[in-house]
Amino acid sequence: MDALNTSLARLSRHALLCANALSAVAAAASDPQMRAVLMHRANMQRVASIELAARAGAAGDGTGDDNGAGAAGRTRDPLNLSPPAESGELPLLRHAIQQAGRAAAAYGALLREPLADAQLRLILTHYYRGATELQRLLEQRAMEFNPVRSGAGARRLMPPVH
Disulfide-capable partner of 38 in 10, 26, 84, 151 (CB 3.0 to 4.6 Å)? Predict the structure, then answer.
């Protein structure tokens, strides 16, 4: 049970980091519709973080929280990078893609383990799908910043000549 508590606490932290990254991208987003989508997704990640933290606490019955929190603090994820120093939308978007990818990988790793709680498995599956969908959405948004440099795409970017 201690390993499950630690995993759920780690998933909660991943979801919160993803939510914070999404909020930063939303604040820098140039498109109002994308800003709204990103804020909505950030709120969904915050809800996931809160629910997973509550489940980690409930699964521990209050006895393993101190040990689990201390162990998690000592074994911090070395890939947990701070947001980029650049404040533009694209660097923040890339950071959010990394956070969403880490969250999806963490959900997937826990889903590959045997879980006795069927309801927890359903919740984790839901969050895994949401994280992978979010990662795809962010990657598509990042591709919009990279214009096509050759072929027909380059011709479309040029204004028509009259």
Answer: 26
Contact 106, 11 (CB under 8 A): yes
Closest by CA to 14, choosing from 91, 79, 69, 90, is 79
Give the predicted TM-score (pTM) of the model.
Answer: 0.75
Residue 153 inside a domain? The answer is no
DSSP string across 25-55: HHHH-S-HHHHHHHHHHHHHHHHHHHHHHHH
Look up the CATH number of the domain holding residue 40.
1.20.1260.10
Domain around 53: 2-65+86-146
Contact 26, 95 (CB under 8 A): no
First CA to last CA across the chain, in angstroms? 72
Q: What is the mean pLDDT of residues 137-161?
A: 68
pLDDT band per the 50, 70, 90 thresholds, residue 147: low
- What are the start-end ranges of the H helices in 61-151? 65-74, 89-112, 118-143
Alpha-carbon distance of 73 to 46, in angstroms, equals 20
Helix (H/G/I), strand (E/B), else coil: 104: helix
The total number of structural domains in the chain stands at 1
Say what the pLDDT of residue 83 is.
62
Contact 115, 157 (CB under 8 A): no
